[in-house]
Structure prediction request, 334 residues.
Amino acid sequence: MDKEIILKHIQNAKENSCVDFKREFYLSLKQSDLAKDVSAFANLLNNEDKYIIFGVDDETREVVGIDPQSFTKQDDVDSYLESKIEPFPEVICGLIKSEDGKNIGYIKVSSKNLNPPYVIKEVCGKGSRIEKGDIFIRKGSCNKKALRADIDAMYMQNGELMLRIHDDITVVEPIHIENDIISDPTYGHIDIEIFNDTTRPILICAGDIRIERSRRGVLCSIWSTMPVKNIHDYPFEIPAQTRRIYTMLYNFSSQNCLDMGFDIDGYIDELVNVKVRLWDTDDKIYESNQKDIMMIVKGDILHKVRLSETRYNKESGSLWDIIKQRVKGSINRR
Prediction:
């Protein structure tokens, strides 16, 4: 996979925020800009791996190749970066062949580096011009010292918020909520584990749950994350660096019961597939895993199902009576 991506970058012949070409490998790690180059890539948070590619002239984009003996070992690069950058960034070193058989070296700065800012922790570079405490970031095809706004953005993006459906069952039933205008309103409830791995609290202001079985499905809005009621008006906060289970209440109607095929006792004969989405106040969407779970419905919300069942039974009964009368008449005529 790396080879295909690198050859495509070489073919495009453009440096950008994820690609840096160099004609040859650093003559000396101790006197090189390796720490600057790697930390600048690591501080750029996106979903792409970044590549420093050796053996391509950075001006003409001509593929010149490198001597494999000049390319360093993975252990040497790791040891050097561990001594120069904090926290330690994950990189992968390798050699490939170009389309015309030349040796191409690369250092991949993984997109899994999600703990910026990556800071220079020891003086390094040619002439010791890279100082302790420097923070670099890749901007276009250049490595620049990070500004305050860049560092703020790193902290804002640092880590992620993850959702996991914790329950193996979801129940729709009347729920007693203190001081609620409606006495024991009916909601579905499901437990969701939320892990906020970021360095900041996140405010959740909306959400929904998709419930599917066979070719049937409903999309229900999340009304509350207990004990917070009406998250649309009162967003709830998920503190930084926390993991806990939240009980979420979602709207579910008597028509939904009918559409999903529940019987009069509130059961269906198969598991449902559910997925939860949450929105924060910055309009960022977080999605859970999909999970097959059991679903049960209780209470008066089943009235449409029962009414439909009663109507069906009456119609079926009437049809059966007509059939019996016709059969009886036919026998009597004989």
Observations:
- The two ends are 84 Å apart (CA to CA).
- The chain is about 25% helix and 35% strand.
